[in-house]
Amino acid sequence: MENLMLLVLGIFISVIGIVNIKGNISTIHSYNRRKVKEEDVPKYGKAVGTGTLLIGASLVLSFAVKFWNEEAMPYIIIPAFIVGLAFILYGQIKYNHGIF
């Protein structure tokens, strides 16, 4: 059952990332996007969406890898979370002028 939850969560997070990349930032909390200028919305969506998609894709990939080698999961998830969070923080700091 936990394998299935990993897949469902990964797909859900990936879909949110794709929605953000396409420019719809309504899935991001309002206090995290309130200072984003209208002309920066597509760039902000791409930065945050790329990070979100990377995190979601790592969960889906780790679901697939778990069938062959369960010990490889941390080597997939941890680096993807770090890089994904870096993309999200970059977008937050650059386009929202701060984390909140």
General description of the model:
The chain is an all-alpha fold and 100 residues long. It has one domain (2-96). 74% of the residues lie in helices and 0% in strands. It has helices at 2-21, 30-33, 41-66, 73-96. Helix 1 (2-21) packs antiparallel against helix 3 and helix 3 (41-66) packs antiparallel against helix 4. The longest helix is centred in the middle third of the chain and has 26 residues, at 41-66. The protein is elongated and about 45 Å long.
Quick summary:
Helix 1 (about 1-20) runs antiparallel to helix 3 and helix 3 packs antiparallel against helix 4 (about 75-95). The model has no long low-confidence stretch (mean pLDDT about 95). Helices cover about 75% and strands about 0% of the residues.
> Any idea how many domains?
1
| Residue fraction in strands | under 5%
Q: Helix share of residues?
A: over 70%
For the residues shown, what is the average pLDDT? 93
- Terminal CA distance reads 36 Å
Would you report the number of β strands? 0
Given the helix and strand composition, which structural class is it?
mainly alpha
With helices defined by DSSP (H or I, 4 residues minimum), what is the helix count?
4
Q: What is the radius of gyration computed over CA atoms, rounded to a whole number of angstroms?
A: 15 Å
Order of helix and strand elements from N to C terminus = HHHH
The main sheet comes to:
none
Enumerate the spans where pLDDT stays under 50 for 5 or more consecutive residues. Answer: none
Shape: elongated
